[in-house]
Write a structure and sequence with these properties.
Length: 144
Amino acid sequence: MASVHDVAAYILERYGEMSAMKLQKLVYYCQAWSLVWDEKPLFPEPFQAWVNGPVSPILYEKHRGMYSVTEWASGNSANLTDSEKETIDVVLRGYGDKNAQQLSDLSHQETPWIEARRGLGATERGANEITCAAMHEYYSALPL
């Protein structure tokens, strides 16, 4: 199975430099839609419901303190299958034109993040996991 790092590497290869926050959100949406379309996760690493939306702590550790990223040395896009790359490409066509704030705002309107943040204040730090089950349930109900 590919890792969250492999997906991040592939996204940066396809789109080039972007903010760390945008990368986080794109990786999240790739995971969510893989759960719906492919009936399996792209990678095993979890997402947490942070103040600014879904965040992979594993990715965050690598880009902490960086506003933008241009490449992802920790990942290897060759670890992705053609089918996984196709899923990512479709997600990028749907979400790639949005900026980081738009993606963050969008995630704040969606049940998986809202439910994982339950009980936390608007600016309160939290590490509650956004489960694959919650993502699958929510995104599979959306129109394609």
